[in-house]
Amino acid sequence: MPSTGLDPRLLLLSPDDNVVVVRQRLRAGDRVAVGGREVTLFGDVPLGHKLAFRPIGPGDKVLKYGAPIGSATAAIAQGEHVHVHNLQSDYTPTYTLDEARAKHGDAA
């Protein structure tokens, strides 16, 4: 683990961010170092998706590139996958996601 406490498979884009970007596909059961803490992933995380760099509370802004990209819809633990199941865009209507969930289940 590098001295920054961040797994080399993850990328912190700005020191203000509370998420990191996955640089290669991660699998359920993989252990990764996030913010100096090692966590075990509960599910697969695709390339380019986000993990919480630190805990994020419900309603908190999610920061990427040092800018807000949306709000957490639930508590997100450090190292947890951050995606449409726990993140709502503050800029793009989510009605299409709601329709997709209704049609295909909550497998977003």
Automatic annotation (TrEMBL):
<feature type="domain" description="SAF">
    <location>
        <begin position="17"/>
        <end position="88"/>
    </location>
</feature>
<protein>
    <submittedName>
        <fullName>Hydrolase</fullName>
    </submittedName>
</protein>
<dbReference type="Pfam" id="PF08666">
    <property type="entry name" value="SAF"/>
</dbReference>
<dbReference type="GO" id="GO:0016787">
    <property type="term" value="F:hydrolase activity"/>
</dbReference>
<dbReference type="GO" id="GO:0016829">
    <property type="term" value="F:lyase activity"/>
</dbReference>
<dbReference type="InterPro" id="IPR044144">
    <property type="entry name" value="SAF_UxaA/GarD"/>
</dbReference>
<keyword id="KW-0378">Hydrolase</keyword>
<keyword id="KW-0456">Lyase</keyword>
<dbReference type="InterPro" id="IPR013974">
    <property type="entry name" value="SAF"/>
</dbReference>
<dbReference type="GO" id="GO:0019698">
    <property type="term" value="P:D-galacturonate catabolic process"/>
</dbReference>
<dbReference type="InterPro" id="IPR052172">
    <property type="entry name" value="UxaA_altronate/galactarate_dh"/>
</dbReference>
